[in-house]
Amino acid sequence: MVMIDMADAVVDEEDQYERLLRRANVEDLTEVSGIGCLYQSGVDRQGRPVIVFLGKWFPANDLNLDKALLYLIHLMDPIVRGDYVIIYFHTMTLSRNYPSLRWLREVYNILPYKYKKNLKHFYIVHPTIWTKMMTWWFTTFMAPAIKEKVHNLPGMEYLFEIMSPDQLEVPAYVTEYDMTINGTNYYQPEHYLQNST
Questions:
Q1: How many structural domains does the chain have?
Q2: Burial track 65-80 (b if 16+ CB lie within 10 A, e otherwise)
């Protein structure tokens, strides 16, 4: 009996995602796409698409989060059919940019298995103590399937082990901040990515 209920729950989740995908493909999402906080930026050295998310540009308190979810699905659905990488820039992000953990959990639960399975790495650039604590909590209790895929990086240059600099498009404030806190020539390629969680 429990097996049937769980199977029904999986079907319901798939139906919910398919409904959201249909909406994402017909609704006007310019309110969210125009912000520029989520986009594809080239490919990594293995040819996998790289998705960039700019925390500073995500107006969590002023944005229709339903539309934000639809835009995420619209952008990501064709990409997550294969392997992909996400880079989250926490650079100069303020508390008003943080979505609630409840909303993040809902989004994580709505997204089908292919999102989790095909995610190869999730890099957090310029993390803070808060970000590290929340990431640990989220990946330990809510999203253990991606825990080993999350890496905290203190600077942008660590990304260049995984992708060519000409494949990474970020706003000037990110590189300026990076140079301000790290200086120039700070990068020491000591396999940092393998030990960065």
A1: 1
A2: eebbbbbbbbbbbebb
Question: Which residues make beta-bridge pairs with 150?
Answer: 122
Query: Tokens 């990946």 — which residue?
Result: 139
In contact, 103 and 58? CB cutoff 8 Å: no
The amino acid at 150:
V
CB 168 within 8 A of CB 143: no
Residue type, 63: L
Cα–Cα distance between 49 and 43 in angstroms, integer?
A: 4
pLDDT of residue 187: 55
Q: What's the whole-model pTM score?
A: 0.86
Is the pLDDT at 7 greater than 50, yes or no? no
Domain extent for 64: 2-195
- DSSP code string of 132-158: HHHHHHIIIII-GGGGGGEEEESSGGG
Quick one: which of 183, 113, 184, 106 has its CA closest to 138? 106
Please give the Cα distance from 133 to 136 (Å, whole number).
5
CATH number, domain at 151? 3.40.525.10
pLDDT at 185: 62
Q: Is the pLDDT of residue 123 over 90?
A: yes
Q: Are 88 and 53 in contact (CB under 8 A)?
A: yes
